[in-house]
Design a protein that fits this description.
Layout lengths: L2 E2 L14 H10 L12 E2 L4 H13 L14 E13 L3 E14 L2 E5 L14 E6 L5 E4 L3 E8 L2 E15 L2 E7 L3 E5 L6 E2 L9 E6 L2 E13 L4 E15 L4 E16 L4 E5 L9 E6 L5 E4 L1 E4 L2 E6 L12 E6 L5 E3 L4 E7 L4 E12 L3 E2 L13 E7 L5 E2 L6 E8 L4 E7 L1
Antiparallel strand pairs: 1-2, 3-4, 3-14, 4-5, 5-6, 6-7, 7-11, 8-9, 9-10, 9-13, 11-12, 12-14, 13-14, 15-16, 15-25, 15-26, 16-17, 17-18, 18-19, 19-22, 20-21, 21-24, 22-23, 23-25, 24-25, 27-28, 27-29, 29-30
Length: 418
């Protein structure tokens, strides 16, 4: 049996970072809230518990709710980063991709919290007001986001600013009538809450009986600041076989999406874990060219953690698994490390799958270049996108992105005006 030691996480995993990483860390100003429910467990989790976890995930976070009818206004895509409470585990970083709508001074922000637990099949939109100079977005507290089913019946949840206080039993988050103020960085379009490590900005989902979840230190990065590409992912997965009541090995061989922001030293992957196909997983660039992937929330009530040593089985939430860089742009996981996902139901911790010997192949870029050059190859396919990254049927009036793919597997994107 392997002994797994679980330690309370800091809100952002420890990494050996570049100057860009330090810039991001300073800007996020994440602080940690220790969760009193974290406890040590011994041994690899039994498949029967993993089955329960997988069934819960299948029921909730994999429902992939369709979006409500989009509000009027200009659509802009972002990566929404924050520290979020993973139920009965710890406070961990999380990132998702969202679309905001700007209609004059009105901003519509899709609720991105607690989606797997809400009864509604479609997320609600929060309404904010953009200042005349475009520097701030004000979001009133107590906006209804939907209902959850409890032992006592359905209960309405509201999105509000929260005031956190420490008690002998842990922490209490009280709903505040003050609005949430977000600031807009004119240089790159990043939206952030402007809090400090001494006074972080908390938001919570509240009902008449208290709060259900919280997040803090929010950063909303324009997705246009990220270059998109695809990579093959290969390796070994260890997944539960419920008939044999044990874990069995399977081969990992699939394609994942990558979004890379070189200035921040931040990469975001989609499709890394089969149990979380719609989750986005963060990785940070290190000075030696390697990548660090650390503990983070990937779905409500779930977390992904890294094992630092297969033989000892020691696990630390603040440990970052390392992927070394290859000369061809690929990344290979260190041989003695495992990534696995972890599920909590409030009373126990359950595992779904373990991954080792992972390799991210060289990227096939779909990034955007501002330089237009003469084509020397015939394109086998051509696609058009607007400046928000949405695919369109053909070039429309204004600036468009033309993506050409060639027979040799390469691609090129250029801006075109119509």
């Amino acid at each position: 049996m392997k002994k797994i030691l679980l330690f309370v996480a800091t809100a952002l995993f420890a990494i050996s970072g570049t100057a860009q990483n330090a810039q991001l860390l300073n800007r996020t100003r994440i602080t940690s809230i220790e969760n009193q429910n974290v406890s040590n467990i011994t041994g690899r989790i039994a498949p029967v518990k993993a089955q329960n976890a997988a069934q819960g995930l299948q029921k909730n976070s994999m429902k992939a709710p369709s979006a409500k009818a989009a509000p009027s206004g200009e659509a802009r895509d972002y990566f929404f980063y924050r520290a979020e409470n993973a139920y009965a585990i710890a406070d961990l970083p999380r990132i998702n991709k969202v679309t905001l709508y700007f209609d004059g001074n009105t901003v519509y922000i899709p609720n991105d919290f607690y989606l797997s637990q809400l009864n509604e099949a479609e997320p609600a939109y929060l309404t904010g007001t953009l200042s005349d100079d475009g520097s701030t977005i004000t979001i009133p507290s107590h906006q209804e986001i939907g209902t959850v089913t409890t032992y006592y019946g359905d209960m309405t949840l509201y999105f509000s600013k929260g005031e956190l206080t420490s008690t002998t039993q842990g922490y209490t988050l009280a709903e505040s009538e003050e609005p949430i103020i977000l600031y807009v960085d004119a240089s790159d379009g990043t939206i952030f809450d402007g809090s400090t490590s001494d006074m972080p900005c908390y938001v919570g989902l509240f009902s008449d009986s208290g709060f259900y979840g919280y997040a803090y230190n929010m950063l909303i990065f324009p997705s246009s600041n990220f270059e998109k590409s695809e990579r093959t992912l290969t390796g070994i997965g260890e997944v539960p076989d419920y008939d044999l009541m044990q874990y069995v090995n399977v081969e990992v061989d699939k394609t994942v999406e990558e979004y890379n922001n070189q200035e921040l030293g931040l990469r975001v992957f989609k499709g890394l874990f089969d149990y979380y196909p719609n989750a986005y997983v963060m990785a940070f660039n290190n000075e030696d060219g390697s990548l660090s992937v650390g503990a983070q929330v990937v779905a409500d009530d779930y977390a992904m953690v890294a094992t630092d040593n297969i033989e000892s089985g020691e696990v630390y939430f603040d440990f970052a698994s390392t992927f070394t860089a290859g000369a061809d742009g690929s990344y290979t996981q260190l041989a003695n490390e495992t990534l696995f996902d972890l599920y909590s139901d409030g009373s126990g911790l359950y595992g779904n799958a373990y991954y080792s010997n992972l390799k991210l192949g060289a990227p096939v870029s779909s990034g955007i270049s501002n330089t237009v050059t003469n084509d020397v190859k015939d394109a086998v396919s051509t696609q058009y996108f607007d400046l928000s990254g949405r695919r369109i049927n053909g070039a429309e009036k204004g600036v468009n992105i033309k993506v050409m793919k060639f027979a040799d597997g390469t691609s090129k994107a250029v801006k075109v005006m119509k």
